[in-house]
Amino acid sequence: MTPLVDSHCHLNFEPLNAGLEDVLQRARDNGVGHMLCVSVTLETFPEIRAISRSHSTVFASVGIHPNETDGRDPAVDELVELANDERVVAIGETGLDYFRSQGDMSWQQERFRRHIRAARESGKPLIVHTRDAAADTLRIMREEGAADIGGVMHCFTESWEVAHQALDLNFHISFSGIVTFRNADALREVAKRVPDDRLLIETDAPYLAPMPHRGKTNEPAFVRYVAESLASTRVSTLDEIADVTTRNFFSLFRLATA
Q1: Which of 19, 220, 240, 251 lies 20 to 30 Å from 201, alpha-carbon distance?
Q2: What is the per-residue pLDDT across 109-131, written as a single tens digit (0 to 9) for each?
Q3: Domains and CATH numbers, the chain
Q4: Distance between CA atoms of 49 and 38, rounded to whole angstroms?
């Protein structure tokens, strides 16, 4: 079987970082060949870069999560400079989240715009987070020319209409363990319709563990359950989902090398 890729995880977060070698070994034992460790603050980016430099199966991104308010907020040129590293294959995660942040969201929108500009300048695709903000997310992506660089709508939970608009903007759609949940029928209907060449899988570990591990600490090894769920939903096989999603990962994140 083609090795799986976990396209979005946070290996530097507790408790994964405390037992990282065991986490990576369990991933290998479950057929996971590579993973992308995603940045959420500039302050913790050095941890991610160090993990990726020490482990050839781990790639890195650089960016600030939309809800982060305590750390430093970079200009476009700083993001571009930090992205100038062979282990950094993407900008993000970035985007908009109106669920956890309320009030005037102009600061979040401006941060998102800077990330898109940095992605275009660096030539590295975007990792986009959106929650309760799909219309503004898509609008800003259009206004800033995000289609020119592309990327992924990570941990997708929106409607087919949102997915369709993101696909039109040259973005991939990534499904997490949420697609395995018993109450996720609507999301599985969306998953059926995503074209083969735009499909990705992820864990978002240590969060959102899939069934049958829901409520426990998630880890890259569990991306296999996401792949199995998609295989069932799309009337496919695990081998076919592995082949498609791994090929898509390396096609999208062009600087990632197997």
Answers
A1: 19
A2: 999 999 999 999 999 999 999 99
A3: 4-252 (3.20.20.140)
A4: 10
